[in-house]
UniProtKB/TrEMBL annotation:
Taxonomic source organism: Natronosalvus rutilus
Identification of the protein by name: IclR family transcriptional regulator
Domain spans labelled HTH iclR-type: 7-67
An annotated Gene Ontology molecular function: DNA-binding transcription factor activity
Gene3D superfamilies reported in the protein's UniProt record: 3.30.450.40, Winged helix-like DNA-binding domain superfamily/Winged helix DNA-binding domain
Keywords, sorted A to Z: DNA-binding, Transcription, Transcription regulation
Domain IclR-ED residues, every copy: 68-252
One Pfam family from the record: IclR_C
Keyword Transcription regulation carried by entry: yes
Highest rank taxon of the organism: Archaea
Protein's GO biological process: negative regulation of DNA-templated transcription
Taxonomy of the source species: Archaea, Methanobacteriati, Methanobacteriota, Stenosarchaea group, Halobacteria
Length: 253
């Protein structure tokens, strides 16, 4: 029986895409079929179509994700007013503090990192442009959650849950909601090694304006560079000011 509207066929294509995403050296048709419990003929048909459309590449008998996904995502980002106004401010903060500064947006209940700038003292972590994280596990996510309408926030938490990600991740709903109330009143969120051990972050929300997504801007650094006055006062005040500047531009420019 044909899939109504082709929906299941599209889902199968993206199951294949996500499986390829996890394979550093690519995967063959039979290997993919076994992993996804699909007929070899089905996997081959989907891969052939994805290859023809230039979304996967083929080397020998193995397939890998193609760079056209980057082209599509980059185009969406670069045509955004949020990115236009925020990018120079993200660069400015990275130069000013020397750490890693990120612009994030809420995407299907996850926090998507759309732009990252690195100062001279920034260290490498697992975040990269395009990664999507659980919102309760990071400062940017909590900043966004705190400023969502109640129903929207409830829907996000129900959909994504409160799984343990790092050593100090908040997994209790009441505890998280209490912290979100504090974030809403103070206008700044903190990540106290909640996702990555040894890393602290500070984030301020950029509430939704017009057709732009809910967003946040954050600074992340090792605890050695995120201590005392710098972590509790200096960086929060600066990040809040920058976020407010971006919000005003989105509203009036």
């Amino acid at each position: 029986m044909a899939d109504k509207g082709g929906i299941n066929a599209v889902r199968t294509s993206f199951q294949i895409v996500h499986a390829l995403r996890e394979a550093d050296e690519g995967m063959g048709v039979s290997e993919l079929a076994r992993e996804l419990n699909l007929p070899v003929s089905t996997v081959h048909s989907h891969l052939s179509t994805l290859h023809d459309c230039e979304y996967v590449t083929k080397r020998g008998s193995k397939y890998s994700i193609g760079y056209r996904f980057l082209e599509v995502g980059g185009s969406v980002r670069n045509h955004s007013r949020l990115f236009e106004y925020a990018r120079p401010k993200v660069d400015q903060l990275a130069d000013e503090f020397g750490d890693k500064v990120s612009l994030c947006v809420l995407d299907h209940g996850l926090v998507a990192y759309t732009y990252i700038a690195k100062g001279e003292e920034a260290i490498e972590t697992d975040t990269f442009t395009g990664i999507r994280l659980l919102p309760h596990s990071c400062a940017s996510g909590k900043a966004i959650l705190a400023h969502l309408p109640d129903k929207h926030r409830t829907d996000v938490l129900k959909r994504r849950g409160l799984s343990q990600v790092g050593p100090n991740t908040i997994t209790d709903r009441d505890e998280l909601l209490t912290e979100l109330e504090t974030i809403q009143s103070e206008g700044v969120a903190f990540d106290r090694q909640e996702r990555l051990e040894g890393i602290r972050s500070v984030a301020a929300p950029i509430p939704r304006e017009g057709n732009q997504p809910n967003a946040a801007i954050s600074i992340s650094a090792p605890i050695s560079r995120m201590s005392d006055e710098r972590f509790e006062r200096e960086i929060p005040e600066r990040v809040q000011n920058i976020a407010e500047t971006i919000r005003i531009k989105l509203r009036y420019a």
